[in-house]
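Moderator note: this is an archived Q&A kept for reference. The question asked for a predicted structure of one protein chain; the sequence and the answer are reproduced below.
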Amino acid sequence: MGNIFGYARVSSRDQNEDRQLITMREMQVPEKNIFIDKQSGKDFNRPQYKKLMRKIRQNDIIYVKSIDRLGRNYTDIQEQWKYITKTKGADIYVIDMPILDTRREKSLLGTFISDLVLALLSYVAENERVNIRQRQAEGIAAAKARGVHFGRMPKPLPDNFYEVYRRWKMKKLSVTEAAKECGMPTTTFFDRAKAFEKSTMTKT
């Protein structure tokens, strides 16, 4: 029997990993052997996960509460699963899905069933990640349609902007000269001028 490890992950620093840790303790995973990452599961470029991979040896076991805590990318999950079980010679136990316990069935049929379930759950995890991104994009698009502004608010226009803009439009100033008088980069002046023109046309 090798060492017992646990891996937990939450997507951001303000999320709480307590439920995962309670489960790890119930499985008698030593506190010093629990590795926690607080970042997205889109890939495996995570400091604590990498540290765990350096620690594990043949016949060790890794507990993870659910497959999406391991990761959310279908291809990467399967690659890491093979790396842990085949290359490292360690075992994995997904607590919420006991059939994904590589210690149970070492036969060809057992491995086939385990791999089949893993493929299905990995697909579901990635599909959910894609759906979340799509919902976020749709939400942002809907908010923009309502006039909600994202990102930093533009700085207020200088007091002389409209007078400088009028002279620029009358070709009394070059865009470089106009920008200099307004104290802004040339591209910024040009963009703000075009935005002003657009807003004026909309109002009319």
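Archived answer notes: Residues 4-134 form a domain with the Rossmann fold fold (CATH 3.40.50.1390).
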